[in-house]
Amino acid sequence: MFQPLNRADMARRLARDIPDGSYVNLGIGMPVLVAAHLPPGREIVLHSENGILGMGPPPADAEIDLDLINAGKQPVTLLRGGSYFHHADSFAMMRGGHLDICVMGGMQVAANGDLANWSLGRPGEAPAVGGAMDLAVGARSVYILMEHNARNGEPKIVERCAYPLTGAGVVDRIYTDLAVIDVTPDGLRVRDMIDGMTFKELQARTGAPLLDG
User: Fold this and answer.
1) What percent of the chain has pLDDT over 90?
2) Confidence (pTM)
3) For 57-85, how does the pLDDT look when each residue is reduced to its tens digit (9 = 90+)?
4) What stretch or stretches form a coiled coil here (predicted)?
5) Which residues are catalytic?
6) Is 166 exposed, middle or buried (0-12, 13-18, 19+ CB in 10 A)?
7) Which domains does the chain have, with CATH numbers?
8) Under a CB-based contact definition with an 8 Å cutoff, are residues 203 and 149 in contact?
9) Cα–Cα distance between 94 and 146 in angstroms, integer?
10) 153 in the Ramachandran plot: left (φ > 0), alpha (ψ -120 to 50) or beta?
């Protein structure tokens, strides 16, 4: 019997894999939780798409500054030495290859690293991908943080994405509530699984072939 990780534990699991000295963008949604779980003593510089470098963890309620928000319009803090800058400068950082890692959410990830994370193809949705496409192709590594399965139980890791793509072949690693999976030239290789889960059980919940270890 196994117990899937909650979102805080998923963020904590990813945070511990970010190397010291990394420049990291945290995407809208679940990825912003990573800021609160970075290992103490590790120097990691967080970037926000709307023009922040040196973003800190979420503030206490009494310290909220409504003028200091991330790209998802959530209150954040600024660490000593942090800075603000124009949106255009932020996109220059993203497009210029200056970010070591981008952590993004996902709706689907394909076995070849294709990412779909902005549209389910339904009427009334946001009409554009926003900055996700720039981040997906501009960061040196792309980590996806998402539940392993959708609410209806369908796998979110699939052989081929059915939703509109954010980027083709951009994903390097997937963190879910069940496992950590690397996207490799040989296929999807399981790096880690939650306690109590077997490879067979993980494969049954995944829509693409997995490689063990």
Assistant:
1) 91
2) 0.95
3) 999 999 999 999 999 899 999 999 999 99
4) none
5) 49
6) buried
7) 7-211 (3.40.1080.10)
8) no
9) 22
10) left
